[in-house]
Amino acid sequence: MRLVLPNPGLDDRIPSFEDLKRMDKEEGGDRPKWDNKAQYILTCVGFCVGIGNVWRFPYLCQSHGGGAFLIPYLILLVLEGMPLLLLEFAIGQRLRKGSVGVWRAINPYLTGIGIASMLVSLLIGLYYNTLIAWIMWYLFNSFQSPLPWSQCPLNDNGTGFVPECQRSSTTDYYFYRVTLNSSTSIVESGGIHWPIVVCLLAAWTVICICYIRGISTSGKAVYVTAILPYIVLAIFLIRGLTLKGAFTGIKHLFTPDGVEGTGLAFIVFTEAITKMPGSPVWSVLFFIMLFCLGVSSLFGNIEGVVVPLKDLKLLPQKWPQEALTGLTCFIAFIISLLFAQHSGLYWVTLFDNFAGSVPLLTIGLFEMIAVAYIYGMDRFNEDVEFMIGYKPSFFWQASLRFTSPLIVVVILAFYLVTLGQEEFTYLVWDPESEKFPALASVPYPSWINAAIFLLAGVPSLVMPGYALCRLINHNFSVPLNTLDNGSERLKRCDF
């Protein structure tokens, strides 16, 4: 006997196989679609392989055991990541809706999963595009010889080099003091750093232009943004392996040793570039590669915000795609000014640590429970067979039913327990610190708990919160035909 929770009306909320065939014929010309399979595959690759693979993953690997970190990573990739990827691709393709529409069709009480996904996409997109702004700054400054971070600047009277730079390193100084002009605390905002504001505006403008017509424009952009990084990485790999000491570098990859955190791509890699002949050329190639990786990732994030906004029907439905995309990017740019302060680096670190951790775990857990025990694995298997010609193997079915949800619960429990036992600290650039030029570890202020709750708690709680809100309001609601405007829709959780 298979455990499937009661879900009345499901057959009426999702299209049948016959309906899908008819829709392909009747709506094929009107519905946005990829020009070919290559665009779809490249878009998926671009979303899955992003700037985090160059900026975030290496320092996480080094700070958690070096090459040994790859062992649990690969295990969880097979037991957790791949089943979730299959689930999301398959259920989205079967129901042909965005994140809100899919879960609302399975059961209206699951709409909160889509809302949570939208919030996480927005939060991650905010600081990811800030990284793109930093990349654009470095790219613009790469067209110089020598590179501006290859030597310390002169002091005000021109009699020597800046002491702060001489005490640290040229790449450290350029990142923390020239690029970001970082304050010594997250509490000290220091005002707006205008060069980063300009780069942020340029970054959000590029994203808006590339996505403003939906997949009709982003589908063409991925030919460059998804392919070029691999060409550049291959060039760097070949060049790196031919340099003296290449074997030592490979050996170091598997040696546990904590590194520069969010500054890895902007400090370690930039310093390596300065050692290479023709460094400006290599610098331009490197930051073009990072730019392409970042832009291709953000296409998915913007899609994860724009489509749910349309599905929620909180904005006028007559708005064209261009207007909705433009409004989304404009609001995101305004919020991103938080990262353009002199304390912006510390806010990026905070978002990186909490916006994409607990919320993603809880969303994945709810998605697997929803498909396996509310939508039904038998129905899901039939859907996959209809789309690709055969059912998922026993491994995929067992993973989605038991293994993957159990792993998420265990990881989530250990993460929360560990988090509760540790003091929240972050690294700051402080020339007055005794440890300088190493970054100083300082505790977060007490009010940061409120910010962490907004980043991690709200997206996680919106899923059960929405279901509870809908249950209460539908038990004590007024007739639906008396409620027409958006504010009343919010009050009764009916979107």
From TrEMBL:
It is a multi-pass membrane protein. One of its GO terms (biological process) is sodium ion transmembrane transport. Its main location: membrane. Coiled coil: none annotated. The chain crosses the membrane at residues 40-58, 70-91, 112-140, 192-212, 221-241, 281-302, 323-348, 354-377, 398-417, 447-469. Na(+) 2 binds at residue 49. PROSITE patterns: NA_NEUROTRAN_SYMP_1, NA_NEUROTRAN_SYMP_2, NA_NEUROTRAN_SYMP_3. This is Transporter. It comes from Labrus bergylta.
